[in-house]
Amino acid sequence: MKRLLLLIALVVAAIHVQAADITTITTALKTGNATTLQSCMDKSVDMALADKSKTCNAQEAVSMLNGFFSSNKPSSFSLLHHADKKDNGFLVAKLTAGNKSYRVNVTYKVEGDKVVIQSIRIE
Question: Per the record, a Pfam family (predicted)?
């Protein structure tokens, strides 16, 4: 009986520790297709790109990213770190576009099985 309870506790813990699915975010950043991120954006998103920063709605955030990607076409993208804590998480990546390398930081919250972007910083 003790083993069964321990097994159930481990299964429940494993379910809660499962990392959020950030595939949509990493694919969009890797390909420079910000439009696919609009459904993942929070109502208010903190954006900081190479030359400007502001808090904006999802549509403005996507527009800013599309502007960035139009002059900085990604040639490589590598995820450096990804961590989740309860209902939120972040990722850190290296994006190479043209002859420049950028550090990308994305913070998000998890609502059910959906990742909701709260901030994007590309520096």
Answer: DUF4783
Work out the number of other CB atoms within 10 angstroms of the CB of residue 34.
Answer: 21
Question: How many other CB atoms are there within 10 angstroms of residue 96's CB atom?
Answer: 14
Cβ(89)–Cβ(77) under 8 Å? no
Which strand (E) or helix (H) includes residue 27? helix 23-31
Residues 27, 36 contacting (CB under 8 angstroms): yes
Q: Identify which of 53, 43, 55 has the alpha carbon closest to the alpha carbon of residue 109.
A: 43
CB atoms within 10 A of CB 112: 6
Is this structure's pTM higher than 0.70?
yes
Tell me, what amino acid is at 90?
A: F
The identity of residue 28, as a single letter, is A
| CATH number of the 19-122 domain | 3.10.450.50
| Tokens of residue 84, six digits | 């989740």
